[in-house]
Fold this protein.
Amino acid sequence: MSWEFLLLGLFGALGWYWYAGMQARELAVAAGRRACADAGVQFLDESVALQRLRFARNDNGQLQFQRDFRFEFSDTGDNRRPGVVHMFGARVVWVNLDGEWRPQAVASVTRLHD
């Protein structure tokens, strides 16, 4: 095998990784926006940031990327609270809104269904 094919395969793998990451980021933005709307808070900056990326096994035992995206929201408009979107592959598993912003809330985790 010549080095040109190896280089082409490397560029193809990098392109796939970038494309899959952008798709996951778009899903995380939509999930964060929806969770904030459901909770009645403001989704700030209309963006998420990749906090953690690793390989993990899903329920079927297959290796997939596990991504945690961080975002910020506000309940009053003049503060910032952290939130996390947890994903397996291209599936949103849960969204966590910081429990301190609403002391009377018992659970801070919102499960999202596909």
